[in-house]
Amino acid sequence: MPPALTCEIARMAPADQWPTVMVFQAFEQAYREEAQANAAPAPGDGPAAAEHAADNDVWGEDAAGSETFDDVSRETLSSDVEGAASAGDSAGDAATADGSASDEAAAPPALRPADLRFSMRSLRAARLKGVDFHPKVADLVDAGGPDATLEFPSSEDLDEAFSKEGLVGAMYPDFEARSEQLAMAQAVRRAFELSENLAVEAGTGVGKSMAYLVPAALTARNNDITVGVATKTNALLDQLVYHELPALSDAFAELDPEGGPLTFAPLKGFTNYPCIRKIENLVRDGVGVRVVQKKEVSQAPALAALLSFVEQTAYDDIHSLKIDYRALPRYLITTKSQDCLRHKCPFYGAPCFVFGSRLQAESADIVVTNHSLLFRDVAADGGLLPPIRYWIIDEAHNAEAEARGALSLELDAEAISGIARRVASDEATRNVFVRAERKAASDAQGGMTPVVGLAEKARSIGRDYAEKAARFCEALKMLLFFDDAKHGRNYETVELWINPDLRTTATFAHVRATGAELMAESERLVHACQELVGCLEDVSGMAAVQREIASLALTLKDHVTSADLILNQAPEGYAYAAVLNRKKDKVVDKLQALLLDVGDKMNETFFSRTNSVVMTSATLTVDNSFETFGQAVGCNRGDASRTRTLQLESSYDFDRAMTIYVVEDMPEPTQRPYMKALEELVVLLHRAQQGSMLTLFTNRREMEQCYEAVQPVLKQDDLRLVCQKWNVSVKGLRDDFMCDERLSLFALKSFWEGFDAPGSTLKGVIVPKLPFSKPSDPLSCERAARDDQAWRHYVLPAAVLETKQAAGRLIRKADDEGILVLADKRLLTKSYGKVFLRSMPSRTVKVLPMRKIAEEVARKLAE
């Protein structure tokens, strides 16, 4: 750690947390090692002397004389550390006097910590020394163009790569060739070569990550272009970035030393990275104290860890930083896109975590991002990601929902009331107009300036905005009048479909009227912001204030656009919803315009602008057909011949490993005896399997009712059962489940997919009810109003895919075994039941009464 940084941490830390002398000793050792490593050459040694001087400057020593660092440097040593330094110097002098020191030529320079200065910019410069970027943007733009000639891997190249002696074989000592994996890799290769889209359903065990990464890497390296990979979950993104891609890069370096390693980069949104400007402000302001659970907690440990993180990492995201965010909230150390100063920030470019990661991505062979950023880039018509023409979308069964989220609009009462509190406040820490006014008045020594006048005008409009915002939020809450008891009074949140009839009511007319008043005030405030931003353009020291005001104006403009579309225009392409909280004092309500046909928009703005998109998941087909998926995401719109499909069964023997039981003697879910029968079934199965069960509910009330009845009974049998109740940590439940092989869990939506518990940790999954969406869901209501077959076109396929996801929790390794129990009798009484069963990964399906199922499970366990 650089000595100036160590010194800074010593200054921050209270004595009861880090003894100053202890930290100083670490600082002294670092200083001496650095001095010895960079022993100053004799004068006149030319370039070496200059290099040594540059090293000292990078470490922040004598930075006051450096023009580069002067604007961000400052002295940071506390009097305690100076005292320790003096003692150290005296001891060193005495040692020299009595002859115990080594020869003078080898001794480090005299320790002068008071001369040290800490600089965030120098800290980043030291960390990024030697980092170079070679953007591929020009190649990307031309890739696949009419005059481009790209070199794609051949079929033989992939045969070799997936052999014992090839790339994949070099990665795994116990490598075994899998025909399904090679078939998928060849399909990806052909899709890239022929500029086609590809949808691949690859069952568990196929090894789909390597099946797409290898042809993607070969294509990128052969043509000096970037291939993009997008995942839904951070878990898979991290798996690729920290495990799969480093191993593949090492294999390339081993088998093709001249070609060098594979380059790759993760890319996430702004708030995933630390903001160096904000961190510098925190350091400048000094260590603060926050009240956490009625106790004062110093920010020093968190801030010290943050500084160490900035010094040790190039562009890691903040998720790898383990600090107490109660003491140092994330909003203090990250920034949103609209709040970033960009070119006006002293850290803009390579030193910045956000823009540095983008420079890194533009130079990488493989960029790994998430669905959210990919589809926000689509919605923004580009600019958030490099112009990548070859994409792989993993976990693609989530693509439609993620794209809809990015392409839809909303008007959020919580965001509106937040702005109202800020612009009506007289506190400079909250109101940017107050900060602008006070800074301008201070610079003018109390006199009037254009900035002061415009800031006062904006503050006045801000107070009017706050009044109109309160009226609108109150009006929005009045829509609860239309809340139907059928929606379930046990939930805080209700979703209302804003249909044509509701739009004609006096209540909605009041919402529209108060909304119009608020938007008129918003436009006045936008104009005031624009005047202030223009006036601040040439005012020094106001860049952060200017950017915050500009950001506020952009947010208000978005609100005006959303309000006009939802309340007035109401175009045909959307379903309209009001999401309301039943508690009158909770201002978290919102109006939404949900894009109905995501596929049409995706075809227009994404697929038509790429050369090839590969979409893959373990769950894309319904009854062995890709038709629903293709329509949903739009890859079979327009030139449908551009999209091919491939369905690969698991490399594991699912027919042997998974037995699917359909409970024959269960009542229908709508019948009164259903809950009693479910409780009996759950007890029987847990006793037979001796725990290690996951029961996936679709309804919180039913889950908690069943838990209250079943848990005491199982406890008597020494079987532990936990439940995903309100405010219970999902991560905590996952960790507990993984640590206790006999633990069983009742869970909701967050456990239906993405939860892996291989081995004996999970031996059985129970699905009490088929996961059909609520009939009152606004999207479903709008679809039903337009299409008399909407249930079969949308609700049924979604439920089938979700049930396939539930089944996928069970078998994660080749030697896993388990049972899937489907307790919904509609599988036997309704025609669509066969669609569910034909879509399951195992063909071993048994229809038995619940006691017979329990007896068979217990017998297998005893074998």
From TrEMBL:
Position of the signal peptide: none
Residues covered by the Helicase ATP-binding domain: 167-443
Gene3D superfamilies associated with the record: P-loop containing nucleotide triphosphate hydrolases
ATP-binding recorded as keyword: yes
Pfam families in UniProt: Helicase_C_2
Record keywords: ATP-binding, Helicase, Hydrolase, Nucleotide-binding
Gene Ontology MF, one: DNA helicase activity
GO BP term (any one): nucleobase-containing compound metabolic process
Keyword Nuclease: no
Comp. bias (Low complexity): 36-51, 83-108
Name of the protein in its database record: ATP-dependent DNA helicase
Region (Disordered): 34-108
